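Example 142.
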Amino acid sequence: MRRKVLNVHAVHFYPSVTNYHLVITLVDDLDAVHRALWALWMGSDRLRGVYVLERIRRGVAAADVLSTPKAFIDGFRFPDDACACASKHKAKRVTDHCPAMKRLMMDERSGDYFPRNLDKKKRTKPLNVPWGRVPKKLLLES
Ligand SMILES: [Zn+2]
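Predicted structure in complex with zinc ion:
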């Protein structure tokens, strides 16, 4: 704001159940990619950011939606849609059946584009990675 890189209209800060939401509104709108890049730069959730960028790459018009049971920005930010889901829109069992997610993201509503480390196998010994090319076998067997 001080450097006037972005023409900030207002800054809003809201608590959520597990963390918080910082919402910055600008005088002039940014395109979706530019918004996603700024969100990542400002510390937004990395997983959320790459999913937004991937949905943009796939042509999803509503690539970045805010799922919340309450209105944000004192009525300034209106919901993109509404649903009656009882759970957060994370699990495929929820997003596959959510009518709002279907309207907003169509077939991409349950897209799982990037593998996360859900490996339950514990590493039993330290992994000493050599300089230069790292053998895949070393990584897979550690
Ligand atoms: Zn829903």
